[in-house]
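Input record (one chain):
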Amino acid sequence: MPETPSAARRSERARAAILTATADLIRELPYAKLSIESIASRAGVGKQTIYRWWPSKGAVVLDAMLERYSSPEGLVLPDTGDIRADLRLLLRGAVAELTDPDSEAFLRAMYIEIQQDPEIGRYYRERLLLPQRAALAARLAAGVEAGQVRADLDTEVALDLLLGPIQSRWSLGLDGLTEAYADAVLDAALAHLAP
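The corresponding structure, as predicted from the sequence alone:
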């Protein structure tokens, strides 16, 4: 039986409250202390309401992150005709996001969850990582067509050269994740990518 309009509105309000509560709590608590109970309490719903839509804490956190940080049209990289400028904007944006306390809290939580829950890992890759890599691959392909990137480009290696060092530095908690570091990564990658 389909939900009545008022039940649908209540469901959407509850869902929004859960995602908002999750986003607030992820910034306030260490991830290990975040629980379905704390999310339910903050959202003003019962635990069973959360479990009706999500199988685990990680699934709620991932949806709250996607709700906050993804756009309906997906990731579209700029194509100004200058591959260096476009990639600089991308890499500096990645550094800014990884060092922003709000987004970093979500990303650290996901880093934990994808190691422990293969289903969350699959969903995270499908909804976030693979679309990001596809957008960057499309921009690199445009660079090949424009003669700004080598014609024999191995796209997977190029993606890893551009994204890997920043991701590695962040995941290890190393200092120096700055715009200058992003620029150095870009210079090193472009030395390989140039025609």
